[in-house]
Amino acid sequence: MSSFLPDETETELVPQSSDKMLYCEAEPPPTVEKVKPARENSETDLEIEDNEKFFTTGQKELYLEACKLVGVVPVSYFIRNMEESYVNLNHHGLGPRGTKAIAIALVSNTAVTKLELEDNCIMKEGVLSLVEMLQENYYLQEMNISNNHLGLEGARIISDFFERNSSSIWNLELSGNDFKEESAAPLCQALSTNYRIKKLDLSHNQFSDIGGEQLGQMLAINVGLTSLDLSWNNFHTRGAVALCNGLRLYLNPISMDGAILLILAIKRNPKSRMEELDISNVLVSEQFMKTLDGVYAIHPQLDVVFKAVQGLSAKKTIFLLTNPMKLIQNYADQHKITVMDFFKSLNPTGTMKMSVDEFQKVMIEQTKVPLNQYQVREVIKKLDEKTGMVNFRSAQAPRRSPFSARGPGWAGLG
Asked: Which of 247 and 102 is assigned the larger pLDDT?
């Protein structure tokens, strides 16, 4: 007891001394710091928040250390925005080393989903850093590395990664990267097995006909791509045909709305020379037919094949599908003239040939054998020489040879 009382007395006297008061008020912070480590193992909301702050700070610290490691100046914009989903570092002059520092910081980053790195001269070394990062980062979904002078080696690095590795990237922009013919092969090899990429931009490169053929073969296999930009390359007829072969529409899940968008795209292109659009698995509407009338007026060479017209009455269907050449032949028989005479009578010049545009116009306007737009198209297909002209002689019915009816041994002499 005697030993306890003095302590209690001292405790009561402590507030009376200003020095003691200063000491007691200043002392608690070290005491708290000593106690805090013992609480770090406790799972509380506060500790989780502290850990998140430490993690965020660690991301920035990691980037700053990476910049020191590779010997580049940190990009302040990246530091400020590395916790955002969209980071635009276009035209920052990163170079290969600056790109490597960014890649190191993104290895464990879970925030950024879209990264823009256009025009940073990242070269093949920078691309190598990025694909190494993508092996660990599954949060990044869209990446733009256009105009970075990647060349053949860059194309090979990218292709090798996307062929062998899974990735969350579905939108990849590779425009203006000096990809020539030899770059097409590795890219197509990767895309023949990678169906995760939905949008790919290969515009403003130097692919020509060989590249077009390889890309066309890839398109015939790939079932993932929904958007491929190949504008401003060097495709000629051979390459363009190969690409179109790869893009055949048969059995594609094109809806009625998609069919309208297709013909409107042709309508808006006055230079289009498309001759046939096969959407024979699509049930179209009467609105589609009206739109198609306007397309035919601009592109008379076009032939659109579709399944049927939704909601069309039986009477209209018969009118739409009746063989127009049979109707013309019936008219000619009734008036004791030939089919050629019928067509020739429609030509102001009286000759056997006529331009497709003019012929289409007079066939719609004539009243001798009323035909709709689609029946006129069938007539044009019959007479078209594929030179922009129709030839009425093509309508002449073939005559049976007298020799064919008598057998091969009959010479018809005497």
From this structure: 102
Other beta carbons less than 10 A from residue 176's beta carbon = 20
Instruction: Round to whole Å and give the CA distance between 102 and 89.
Output: 10
DSSP 48-109: HHHHHHHHHHHHHHHHHHHHHHHT----HHHHHHTTSSEEE-TTS--HHHHHHHHHHHHTT-
* DSSP-assigned beta bridge partners for residue 279: 306
pLDDT of residue 281: 73
Report whether 67 contacts 73 (CB < 8 A): yes
CB 301 within 8 A of CB 273: yes
| SS3 letters across 93-115 | CCHHHHHHHHHHHHCCCCCCCEE
334-374 per-position pLDDT tens digit = 999 998 889 989 888 888 898 888 888 888 888 888 887 77
Euclidean distance between CA atoms 406 and 334, whole angstroms:
32
Q: What length does the chain have?
A: 414
Dist CA 143 CA 124 (whole Å): 16
251: Cβ contacts below 8 Å, ≥ 6 apart: 281
388 and 376 Cβ atoms separated by less than 8 Å: no
Contact present, 165 and 137 (Cβ < 8 Å): no
* DSSP secondary structure letter of residue 251: T
The DSSP code for 120 is: S
Q: Is the dihedral of CA 44, 46, 52, 57 positive or negative?
A: negative
Strand partners, 199: 171, 227
Backbone φ, ψ for residue 173 (5° rounding): -110, 120
Report the C-alpha gap between 124 and 134 in whole angstroms.
Answer: 15
* Bigger pLDDT: 129 vs 258: 129
Please give the Cα distance from 26 to 32 (Å, whole number).
11
Output DSSP code: residue 384: B
Strands 171-173 and 303-309: unpaired
Q: Identify which of 137, 80, 143 has the alpha carbon closest to the alpha carbon of residue 110.
A: 137
